[in-house]
Amino acid sequence: MSQVRQTTPSLGLAADTLAGVFGQAISAADRLAVLSSVYFSGLDPAADAFVRTYASQVCVGVSFSGVTTSLPLGRELVGVLLCSVLETLGDHRQALNVADGLPDSPVARLLRGELLVQTGRPGDALQLTEGVTNTDDMAVLLLTTRAAALRAMQHPQAAIETCREALRYPSRAAGPRHQARLERARGYLELGQTDKARADIEKVLAEDGNADGLQELLHRL
Predict the structure, then answer these.
(1) Cβ neighbours of residue 36 closer than 8 Å, sequence gap 6 or more
(2) Is 171 exposed, middle or buried (0-12, 13-18, 19+ CB in 10 A)?
(3) Is 25 exposed, middle or buried (0-12, 13-18, 19+ CB in 10 A)?
(4) Cα–Cα distance between 3 and 58 in angstroms, integer?
């Protein structure tokens, strides 16, 4: 990457973008460095001459609890991946700073909502998810985030009702429904309704023993 920037400076943005997006083999620190360089440059890789010529049709799938969304090679994709790296490194506040700069989209709203809850701002997450209805798989995840915000604000019954809305359609993808069930189980546990929590947790366990957050809840039973 550095050699490309030195020998052909005009390719620097494209080189860093490709390295950050497709460089799973490089270290987390190096990936953080190149993604940060691209994102905070303020430039959109989609407008870069090299990317327009050779990679304008490239899309990359990003996954959230089993929901995969394809994003073109551009600033939104770089920001989403940068948030992911920062979250992996435990820097949730910086990840939120990045998410706040993304153009509005379901992906950006989901990232912001989750990070607002994680950084102690559930009220803002609640405002962000106001009016969300169960229209698709991504909406299920947004409703689950809203439930987590309600629970963080000491409203476990309201969180449970929100999860019921998230679970209303059995046709939704399994991953988002699992997260909604686990969030509902957290609400039940806070109300002391262990049997109901156990039913949700065991339902997820039977379908996906590797679901995010499952092991933590199993230890709470």
Answers:
(1) 82
(2) exposed
(3) exposed
(4) 24
Of residues 78, 111, 71, the one with CA closest to residue 95: 111
Q: Provide the total of helices (H) and of strands (E) in the chain, helices listed first.
A: 13, 2
Ordered structural domains, the chain, with CATH = 1-103 (no CATH), 122-221 (1.25.40.10)
Q: What is the pLDDT of residue 85?
A: 92
Mean pLDDT within 118-131: 96
Beta strands in the chain (DSSP E): 59-64, 67-72
186 in Cβ contact with 73 (< 8 Å): no
**Confidence bin at 153 (pLDDT 50/70/90):** very high
Burial (Cβ within 10 Å: 0-12, 13-18, ≥19) of residue 148: buried
- Host H or E run for residue 125: helix 122-128
67-72 and 59-64 strand pairing: antiparallel
Biggest distance spanned by C-alpha atoms of the chain: 65
Nearest one of 93, 73, 76, 95 to 85, comparing CA atoms: 95
Two tokens at 204? 């997820």
Residue with tokens 């546990």: 189
